[in-house]
Amino acid sequence: xxxxxxxxxxxxxxxxxxxxxxxxxxxxxxxxxxxxxxxxxxxxxxxxxxxxxxxxxxxxxxxxxxxxxxxxxxxxxxxxxxxxxxxxxxxxxxxxxxxxxxxxxxxxxxxxxxxxxxxxxxxxxxxxxxxxxxxxxxxxxxxxxxxxxxxxxxxxxxxxxxxxxxxxxxxxxxxxxxxxxxxxxxxxxxxxxxxxxxxxxxxxxxxxxxxxxxxxxxxxxxxxxxxxxxxxxxxxxxxxxxxxxxxxxxxxxxxxxxxxxxxxxxxxxxxxxxxxxxxxxxxxxxxxxxxxxxxxxxxxxxxxxxxxxxxxxxxxxxxxxxxxxxxxxxxxxxxxxxxxxxxxxxxxxxxxxxxxxxxxxxxxxxxxxxxxxxxxxxxxxxxxxxxxxxxxxxxxxxxx
Length: 400
Description:
Blueprint lengths: L1 H20 L7 H13 L1 H11 L7 H28 L9 H24 L7 H9 L2 H20 L5 H24 L8 H38 L5 E5 L5 H16 L5 H11 L2 H9 L3 E7 L2 E10 L4 E9 L8 H15 L4 E7 L4 H7 L3 E11 L2 E11 L1
Helix pairs in contact: 1-5, 1-6, 2-4, 2-5, 3-4, 4-5, 4-7, 4-8, 5-6, 5-7, 7-8, 7-9, 8-9
């Protein structure tokens, strides 16, 4: 019983680790279990194919390379890939890039766990089952996990890039096979007649461990990348931050403006009015003047990416006016605007303010957003901005 636990514990531990990494939009447990089982079942066709094509008497370096990369790595990774591609990949629950890693690791751990059971209970003249299980706990099983991460990272990219999905999927399979083959190649050199036993031992330690370490580092990097996307999608407030903007940030503010305004106002204002307002209100001299007159600007970031900005000023003893707040179209509807307003509201309240006001175009759908977060219309106003153009606004107010 202890030997069974030793054989299955590493794979299950890695499955739990990946499950908890997928914290923002977890997969149905039944899908994960089926993927794990399919990965385990792929051991059998892989063993049959390897048994049929591997010549155990072929032990030159070149033959060992062919065996490692083509007869073992490709066969085994293809089995895991089949479980990922034909069961998990089409599922509706596969709805974010991180899911590629989650499902791929589940398939890989199913394979590694059953393979581990065979190894610890199999015949071995030099090592006991406990020694084999302990050694593989820190080598082969984590290695299979890293191969799964590499494959799954690209499967996640493929799912959301249909035009290039095949190339992404093949790239994932390639890197899994490459690192799997590299790891096995240095192991197989132990039985090559062309390699001195002492040199083979050194190559095993340096080569196999280097392959594993590199694969591990890439795996953690890929998990972090896709997990950040998941967090930005399902809990965006956890990755958002704001900072004060300075005159040196004016080019960035202008760049964000020109990415936001056309989509925000094209259905409300004429192109001529949009161009006029951009030139008069968002030129470099105009923004510099606004800052000099006391308007405070802040920039919003999602991770390291600037995604929006706002400006405000104190207009009364207890009242602030939010002059501008814009976020990139890709961030709209994800809580970014609310995050900015909440952060500013808290800071204003700490300074003794009790009211926050803003203007919104009377035809702008953003009015409903402001109402949802506590603003109410207090009046209408039409502001002459020159050249025959007007801003036809609601004035809205929120108690802090």
